[in-house]
Amino acid sequence: MNTPDETEEILGEGAHLRLLRRGGWEFAERRLTAGVVAVVALTKDGRILMVEQYREPIGARVVEIPAGLIDYRRDGSAEPADEAARRELMEETGFDCETIRSLGGGPTSAGMSTESLEFFVATHCTKRADGGGIEGEDILVTAVPLAELHAWVASREAAGAVTDPKVWAGLWLAARSGDAAVRGMLG
User: Fold this and answer.
1) Are 52 and 150 in contact (CB under 8 A)?
2) Which of 63, 120, 126, 146 could, after both became Cys, cross-link 85 (CB 3.0–4.6 A)?
3) Residue-range domain boundaries for the chain
4) How far is 71 from 105, CA to CA, in rounded Å?
5) How many CA atoms lie within 13 A of 22 on its CB side?
6) Which residues contact 32 (CB under 8 A, 6 or more apart)?
7) What confidence tens digit (pLDDT) does each residue in 129-173 have?
8) How many CB atoms lie within 10 A of CB 179?
9) How deeply is 108 buried, as exposed, middle or buried, from its count of CB atoms within 10 A (0-12, 13-18, 19+)?
């Protein structure tokens, strides 16, 4: 636990990350964001929206659920997490949803980063735009029938993609949510 007499040393700093040492521990601090959201997005016809994009840190395409940063507003306040989840869903997939609900969350890697994550489930998703991300992103979107998800992920991995564990964590949380309709879709 951090105590007031422990000094913090900046080891390196970029536009989005800061590498720190405190109490003998080195870790990354996520800057300019209030956290991360990840969305289990379900369509009316029983599909889950999956995204795939190249991730430079691991040098591979990654299969994911829609996710992104919680922005700060011009007044310095954090964007509400549910608004960030809706925005990221639209930016990445081109889908909007009728309902969105928090499933909880926590640190993404408590031993390495200050980043925190909140999962959401979005239901009755409907296509409204192209999606594919914002400038500089090249996101592929696939609406996968839930019954075929494991086979689809296996086919993407056979093609060289890596699967983000947030896919399985989000589905587990959604399946155990208090929403009977979501539980019914996910089994």
Assistant:
1) no
2) 120
3) 1-32, 33-186
4) 17
5) 19
6) 15, 16, 72
7) 988 888 778 899 999 999 999 999 999 999 999 999 999 999 999
8) 17
9) middle
At 172, list the tokens.
Answer: 């587990």
Query: pLDDT value at position 178?
Result: 77
Each residue's pLDDT tens digit, 63-118: 999 999 999 888 888 999 999 999 999 999 999 999 999 999 999 999 999 999 99
The pTM assigned to this predicted structure is 0.91
- Tokens linked to 16: 């989005």
Length of the chain: 187
DSSP string, the chain: ---TT--EEEEEE-SSEEEEEETTEEEEEE-S-S-EEEEEEEETTSEEEEEEEEETTTTEEEEE-SEEEPPBPTTSPBPPHHHHHHHHHHHHHSEE-SEEEEEEEEES-TTTB--EEEEEEEEEEEE-S--S-STT---EEEEEEGGGHHHHHHHHHHTT-EE-THHHHHHHHHHTSS-HHHHHHH-
